[in-house]
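Supplementary material to the annual report.
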Amino acid sequence: MLLKNASILYGKELQYIENTDIRISGKSFKKIKQNLASSPGEEKLDCSGLVIIPGFVNAHTHIGDSIAKDISLGSTAEARIHPIHGIKSKILKNTKPAQLANFMKNSCLSMIKNGITTFADFREGGLEGVLLLKKTISTFPIRSIVLGRVEYYQKQKEITQNTSLAKSKQTELAAILQNCDGIGVSGANEYSDSVLKYYSGTKKIRAIHSAETKQSCITSKKMTGKSETQRALLLKPHLLVHMTHASKKDLCLSAKKTRGIVVCPRANAALAEGIPDIELMIKTGNTMAIGTDNVMINSPDMFREMDYLWKVSMAIHKKRIDAKQILKMATSNAGTILNKKIGSIGEEYFADCIFIDKHAIELEPMHNPHASIVHRASESAIKAVMIGGRIAHGKL
Ligand SMILES: [Zn+2]
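Predicted assembly:
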């Protein structure tokens, strides 16, 4: 397939290039160049008037809780999402899998319509939870990165006594990992050093929540004398999620020891837990991506996430941030952190992209494409969404 005369955001730096052509072969972008001649029989699509941007990578979700939208709004973060005694965990345990699946499907559809072509999900519920999610999304074209976990949390005493992971749990973890893309750990406060170190042996993606709330940071210090992030790093994580209350020292450690941080600004705000300091995170050398977190708390919409993060960060720091930085967080940076050929329009990357109508009434005239996409565009400006070289939503 040959896409002709398009404006694109090219490569990891999202360079704006006008009037160029893209050849797609199979599932990937093959060639990006001006005036590409079509081969005999090749499908040709005129993309003038469109700007093609990489598909969004929603780098942190929990779509398993899509059934619990806006339940217990007045409660604290702990009361709502704590993995052991939170309202969410009770809902997940007491709802029929078929019902959970129905609402997960809705979230998938909603993400595709909003230009999300990949999502990375922390899936609760052990092996059953992972299999349910995988089965539910198998009929949708969206790309998924499923990070499972053993439904096992230690008590304070076990943590201070450094109790190791029981053999039965080790076997359970091995079965989970055979069926998904890696491990998504709830947090360091639920595990001893020994268990976190055991988890660090996972050969697939390793990810963990860290420093999401002030309380979780205080709990870690009180219980172990160490910061929550210091302990989270025992997992040897490829990525840390949140880091909203991490110290500068912890951010420096994260820059050295992980591939990056995924922030969830609207979810943090909705839980009254602050705003991640992306300026400091970038300054300390961290690669940054964005996730929309629990569907229970927040909508899986990357346009809203970018708009919110861009403006709230500038308002707090009274300092301008290049809109391109924010857009990279939603696309190419996530590809880097997850170490996949996603999030960029470049040769040999998966052909996952969004076709945005430059002449959409809310966008025209588009003087600054990056800023327009970050804070003006929405689902209504999307003409089509492509995943793996095939149109997954809309029409060209
Ligand atoms: Zn989360």
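Residues 97-113 form the longest helix (17 residues).
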